[in-house]
Write a structure and sequence with these properties.
74% helix; 25 helices; 541 residues; single chain
Length: 541
Amino acid sequence: MLYLILSALPFLLALVLMMSFHFSSGKALIISLLLTCILVLSVWQMDVLTVAGYFVYGVLKSLDLLLIIGGAILLLNTLKQTGIMVIINNGFKRITPDPRIQAIIIAYLFGAFIEGAAGYGTPAALAAPLLVGLGFSPVAACVVALISNSTPVPFAAVGTPTLTNMTNLSDYVTASGSTVSEFTTAVTGRTCLYLGLAGVMVPILLVAVLVICFGAGKKLIRIVEMIPFCLLAAASFLIPYYLLGTYLGPEFASIIGSVVGLFITVIAAQRHFLTPKMVWHFRYNIRKEQEPMEPDNSLTALDMVKAWLPYLVIAVLLLLTRIPAFGLKALLNNLSIHWESILGIEGLDYDFALVYNPGLIPFMLVSLGTMFFKRKHLPEHGVKLIFKATGKQLLTIALALVSGVAMVQIMINSGVNHSGLDGMLTIISSFLVDSVGKYFPIISPLLGVLGAFVSGSCTVSGVLFGPLQYQTAEMLGLSTASIIGLQMSGGAIGNMICINNVVAVASTTNAIGKEGDIIRINLVPCLLYCAGVLTVFAVFG
């Protein structure tokens, strides 16, 4: 029991620091990393050089992920500074006067697109202020933006959370006789299946919460009459989401699936196809406290096409570099950086396909191109402001990601010691196997939710609990791809209530002090979505 407690202590410390003492995920994970090092050196009696080697390996594994994140944030800041995001937002204001439909198009579908392109809390932070501008109360805008920011999350920033998890699990996967590519395909397929089938409920949940919590009158009727449009929106996004994720890879599911969904749903809304005859309105007090902003009717169709052009270029470049038939995938992957036997540790090798990294191509490439072609629209020192804001945001994420990956890598390999003890994760997994046995899948998505809730990130949730879930699945003889798919699903759903996202979106909509209300409202959709995922797992495995 003592060694179980000591093995779990780094996880427990990180959770306590974030939940009870409100430490940032970066600070909490740095402290947990230090504790892990102390434990493996003193109790597990690992060599200092071995610990240092796996620490360096963990840091290096973080670099390619940080490049993706940095490129995605750079692109988003570029679009903001050049005024392109304002044009895109204005285009949405002209589509429909019904807040229920506005929430589906902007929070659910546009939010999914931003998640696929950028991720890391940006969809809710962009969608919520736009909804406030359309007449939503700050709390209502925050709630629907966060509920929507769930299904696309595992494939944020062209698949970064999924790719991070696969990178973190690569040693386990290769040891099992499989390849990382094969395992990535299997996990992506499972995740798309679980979140996709269960995700049909998300637009309905979004409308239900909006009507029940912020409406008046005949609430049940106002929910039921929206179900046909909700199902259309869900199907138009989730069918390509599943097909793209399953057959092309994690890079495509959210970013291209949402474009298809937006196209179909916007046309349906404009032509009043499957939309209710009556326009629903908020309670009077909501409209009174926030008058809707009028759309800019001077914008032309050409203006909208130009505004969406950077995203179109990104989609094309992703297709050209990710589909093997074009020949660029293998070429770019061959241009890699290799470090063999890190710090002299045999078998500890690192490869980094720099040019293949989507943070460089297409994100940074498109960002620089946009800065150049839109340089007349940039404010004074605009380029400097873009890079400064990007660096500040990236630093916050980097602390948590680097510390978390390094900590887990040391824990994974703590079995290489002079004490004769099993590795830290092996000890925890053995306990879970003995305690819950075949019922472990019920816990799996909830661990993902917990990780996202306290860390603010599906990526960090996977870094923390992915290896533990993989090893437990192996011990129980369960499909490792299915269990990691449940972990990814839980990490995605946890974004509805995660502390960091709630605080961030509340600060952008002047809803400071209402964070508790937002979490309380969103807890029910979060648990219902988890139940839906587990139902899909029970049926399809």
